[in-house]
Amino acid sequence: MEKSPDFKVILEQQSSGNNESSSTVNAPQQQSLIPSPDQICNLLLVMNDREQKLSELATQQQKLILWRVQFVRLERDWNDIKIMINNFEAKLASNLTLAISLTDAEKFHRDHEDIKPFVDRICERIDTLQRKTEKLSTLISNNDASSGPSELINTLVSGRQKVQLQFEDRLRLINAQIIFYKSSEQVSQMLDTLEREYRTIEDIHEKLKSYTDDEIQKILADRLEQLDENKHSFLRACTVARQKSDLFHKYALRNAANLIKHEAYLKPLEQKIKNVSTILKNKEDTVLNAWHHRKKIIDEYLQYISFKRNTDKVFVWIDEHDECFVSKLEALDINDDGYMDFVRALKEKKTMVRKLVERADVLVERSHSFAPLIKDTCNRLDSGFNNFFQKIMRINNKEEIDKEAGRKSDSSLEEKLEQQELNEGKRKAAKQRELIFNELLNTERAYVDSLSKCIQYYLGEMRQHVEEVPEFLRNKESILFLNIEEIQNFHKNLFLKDLERYEDSPEDVGHCFVTWAKQFHIFYVEYCKNNESCIKVLTQYRGPYFETIQHKYQIDTINSYLIKPVQRITKYELLLQRLMSCCEESKGEVKEGYDLMCSVPKKANDAMHLSYLEELEAGLTKEALGDVLLQNTFQIWDSKQIIKKGKERHVFLFETSIVIAKILKPVARGAVRYIYKYKLMTAEIFDVKEHLEAGEPCKFALYTGRPMSSHTADLRVTLKVMNK
């Protein structure tokens, strides 16, 4: 057994003392073999001192042995907890089953609640073990350089985070599953009810014939307002149902990330979501068509009422100028004011009748729902006014009437009729919406045509005549054209066809964008994220290959085609922003559509920065991190640092964590790189403090760990944004 250093010193000194004594005895000049009292006292003092140090050393060694025994016990406890964690993970994996109905989803929620006490026991044991380890770490740190307790503490923290996150992720999935089925069932029932209501055949003329025209207009105006509210409600409900299905799919992907055969779970789930979404979309389209038909009936009946009111005005005027008035007219002089007023009124009524007859012909030609009523009213008007006019002609000279009436005729009669039906401000807004929508629709068709030409000619040539492709460009179709075929297929076969359905209601076109939000994010984020690589290849290649194709087919340059998807997103933003300015703020989903188009470039930029993140910790994947909510460059001060110097770091905010990465500047023409340093769990952040320093509004601190913990792993991270 190896002797301690202190014990060696004592033996050496004792040996040295014996040698000195021996020398003294043997020396001729030695006066006495007996040491002096002072020597004995000194020797006793040395021995007592060495004995005390040896005793202290033995005590310390005993403590270290005791602490190490305690640490071994702590490790053994941790091994027991790991078994519990493994059992918990196995139970979670076995319970990862697709619910086929709301009842199943609610049952899974109850089953998951049964797991919560087990999770609480695991976390409680981890917390207890962590407190013991922290206490032991404090004792050992002053006497031993061993890092075992600190490593165990970090392992315990990670273990607790892992268990909590797995439990919370599964809870999010189950809740998303319940909400998905609930919202789908509720929206489906609402759509079924509305379809039955809108499909019900109603003889609106027969039902309202006992009311006056003013009463009818008020009743139908209220109906239109209610109809409009119903439309916005069910469109919004359909949007929410789609968002819930996307959320369900998102959490399913996250929970299945660690499964060995995740396809066995995800494939039926994705098919189920697709089936439910397809059913809802078909019902939504059916109800929307029925809604437009119902609105058309009401609008056309209001047109008939408006037409009838104007004809009634003519008949009232004719009745006012009855036989008695006509007989008086014979006695009036042609220059008399009364005569002139009558002639002008007659001329106006004649013009009005002509306009009404022309308008009736237009409405009848358009297959108006109330064409028979309009035609009958028009015939009565035409016949009644002609009889009255002929009667006047028999009394007065027609040429004189035309001559006098022509002096002060009312040329704005048609505008007056239009203003009676529609407020001028609303008419202008409606016209503006129509113009913007037409621009949106026409540019969409041109956009699809451009993508088709790019695929047909440029991509087609590279695929069909491989031998003519320059060496530098070979096998680079995926880099150059990215997913442009998917984008073209989406717009041509889905989005454009859906967009055309909103020609009669441009204010609702925002719903079209929201409906296809998922596709916009998938296709355009992917395209915009990788567009930089495409531009780099086109810049590096300086040959005539693409110019030859351009001249051969008389088309635009390949650069102009490949930049169009990026430009199209910006065009959507501008058009929807203009459309918002002429739509009622509380109606439609134009604002949601605009926000969606604004989010696509941001998501593409976030995804591009995430692609630069490297060297993640073992077991951590980008898929498990989820979607980037925010990302930016910060100056960071870490409380663990001995030298408090801010470091430039790139920070990614995810739903469950904050990742801190070191920035490696690009070399030559390479891209920037982010090297993973560590992450903070959002669940572990117990405090955020802003306005740390005067004049530093962008500087704040995050406190992570447990508020009452003394462990060094609990830290304060101070951040200051670099790019405002």
The separation of the N and C termini measures 66 Å
**% residues in beta strands:** 5-15%
> Kindly state the mean pLDDT as a whole number?
80
User: Helix content range of the residues, please?
Assistant: over 70%
Q: Report the CATH C-level class of the largest domain.
A: Mainly Alpha
Could you characterize the architecture of this molecule?
This protein has 724 residues and is of the alpha+beta class. The chain folds into five domains: 1-34; 37-171, Methane Monooxygenase Hydroxylase, Chain G, domain 1; 321-411; 424-610, Dbl Homology Domain, Chain A, CATH 1.20.900.10; 612-721, Pleckstrin-homology domain (PH domain)/Phosphotyrosine-binding domain (PTB) (PH-domain like, Roll), CATH 2.30.29.30. It contains 22 helices and eight strands. The chain has an eight-stranded mixed beta sheet. A hairpin with an 8-residue loop joins strand 2 (630-638) and strand 3. Helix 3 (102-141) packs antiparallel against helix 4 (148-199), helix 4 (148-199) packs antiparallel against helix 6 and helix 4 (148-199) runs parallel beside helix 7. The longest helix is centred in the N-terminal third of the chain and has 58 residues, at 37-94. The chain is elongated, with a radius of gyration of 43 Å. The two termini are 66 Å apart. Residues 1-11, 21-25, 403-415 and 707-713 have low confidence and may be disordered. GO terms for molecular function: guanyl-nucleotide exchange factor activity. Residues 12-23 have a biased composition (Low complexity). Keywords: Coiled coil, Guanine-nucleotide releasing factor. Residues 432-607 form the DH domain. Residues 12-32, 403-425 are annotated as: Disordered.
